[in-house]
Write a structure and sequence with these properties.
This protein is mainly alpha-helical. It is built from 13 helices and no strands. Helix 5 (126-146) runs antiparallel to helix 7. The protein starts with a helix and ends with a helix. The relative contact order is 0.12.
Length: 336
Amino acid sequence: MATIKDVFSKSLSSVQSGAKKFNDTVTPKIVQNIGDTVQKTGDTLTAGKTVVLDAGSNVKAALMEQLDANHDGRVDIEDIIVLGLKTPGVKVERSKFLTNEFRVHYETETIEKAIETTPMEAGIPIEEINKIADAVIQHERYFVSGISAALGAPGGAAMAATIPTDIMQYYGYTLRAAQELMYLYGFPEIISADNEAQIDTSTMNTLILAMGVMFGVAGANNAIKAMAKALGAGVEKQLMKKALTKGAIYPIVKSIAKWFGVKMTKEVFSGFFKKAIPVAGGIIGGGITYVSFKPCCERLKTSLMDTMLSNPNHVETKEESEIFESIAREVDEIPE
């Protein structure tokens, strides 16, 4: 009769034999399967990464095509202005705007004079203009942060497909606010009826200058004050074109445009892709837009409320005076 020791030894021998067989046959298969799975996973991830990279490149290319309005191979402030002014409601008609803002408190004669000259010359106190400017900024602030809601309306998705809304909702209506503030503080019509279809260079550069002030770009503040002085001193709009397109103000405009070029590139190819989808980006960006929009408008307002067109007691800076003197020399050089 087998003893307990013999049974235990036989069982142990059987277990050891089974373990050896498992190690010799099953374990390699498991290891191989694990290796195959890892390899397949790696291949899948690599393929997925390639697809994502390809998709990202395609989206970037599509965005470039959408935003490169002047077809020069890059996205810059000129593209944003062109596209912005094509957005319904961004262009502001000066006479209509001033009439709407002043008609509650002023007679027709005063309003007409404000349109023909400036609100200051029409006798409208700067305090009243400042109040209207504050109301305009607040109105546009609510409006620009709420544009994303309009994407749910008929036609909204089509606009999102044409113009990335998280970019245009900000810059388009920054342009609108810039026009309104400039008109309140004495600047003449920026986009006249004869250049609505095609924005000319001087109009483009005027808007670039205003945008430069809004974003605190170096030199913009003194340049727009010098421009206001020139206009206040009687320099005709036609003569201002020289200063804006190839004269004293032009180098400052180019510097502002270069600054915006860097900003545009970062926003289009960095910030935009963090939001991934244009519609979602617009909705998510609403809160950010609401916070950042007001400081830009306030910078422009602060600059415009103290120029020769809005403040009879304006004291010019040395830099402003130097730019104005250059403009004056350029005007004197033009043959009569």
